[in-house]
């Protein structure tokens, strides 16, 4: 995955760049009524989605990737009648790229990043951007990974001695220890 959330995929015999920045994810959530993470889960589960949702992901991903709006609408409109499974797979890849960012660098997730039903609490992003003096338009153009890295850098600059977040392995070890702790209050 890329740091800016883009992915290049073939659609109708042409390679297109797809990208869902924060503003695109916000538009997707408004268009579909579902959180982007919830849509991704639905695509992977193979149920509870509408073809319109697949088309919206691809259309907004094209626009976010730099395709002019009229052309993105035309490409999305041409998807009707095509085999669904390959399109669902491509929409899932576009969503995953927009939600995950770079695999090789883990940064903290902004507070409020995911709410009920996978919906993103965008107010937290706007609040963080305001606190950092980041213009809303600049924040909306970022991928989630880029915003998380920006927030992480801002926080480290303000408090360089702050502890790092636990690694996934440290989190797993802590949960395993907590599950095995006796209920009587004595040490494990």
- Helix share bin: 55-70%
Q: From the structure provided, what is the oligomeric state, counting identical versus distinct chains?
A: single chain
How much β-strand is present in the residues? 5-15%
Report the span from N to C terminus: 41 Å
Radius of gyration: 19 Å
Number of helices: 9
How many extended strands?
Answer: 2
Can you list the strand order of the major beta sheet? 1-2
Give the ordered list of helices and strands.
Answer: EEHHHHHHHHH
Using the alpha-carbon principal axes, give the shape: globular
Q: What structural class is derived from the secondary structure elements?
A: mainly alpha
**Sheet with most strands:** 2 strands, antiparallel
Write down the overall mean pLDDT. 82
Unreliable runs: none
Tell me the count of domains: 1
């Amino acid at each position: 995955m890329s740091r800016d959330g883009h992915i290049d995929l073939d659609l109708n015999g042409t390679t297109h760049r797809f990208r869902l920045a924060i503003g695109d994810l916000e538009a997707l959530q408004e268009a579909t009524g579902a959180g982007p993470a919830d849509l991704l889960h639905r695509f992977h589960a193979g149920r509870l989605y509408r073809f319109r949702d697949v088309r919206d992901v691809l259309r907004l991903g094209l626009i976010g990737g730099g395709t002019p709006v009229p052309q993105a609408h035309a490409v999305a409109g041409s998807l009707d009648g095509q085999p669904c499974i390959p399109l669902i797979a491509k929409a899932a890849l576009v969503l995953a790229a927009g939600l995950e960012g770079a695999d090789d660098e883990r940064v903290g997730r902004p507070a409020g990043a995911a709410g009920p039903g996978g919906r993103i609490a965008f107010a937290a992003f706007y609040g963080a951007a305001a606190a950092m003096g980041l213009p809303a338009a600049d924040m909306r153009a970022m991928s989630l990974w880029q915003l998380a890295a920006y927030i992480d850098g801002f926080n480290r600059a303000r408090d360089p001695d702050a502890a790092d977040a636990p690694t996934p392995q440290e989190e797993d070890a802590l949960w395993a220890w907590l599950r095995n702790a006796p209920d009587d209050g004595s040490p494990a």
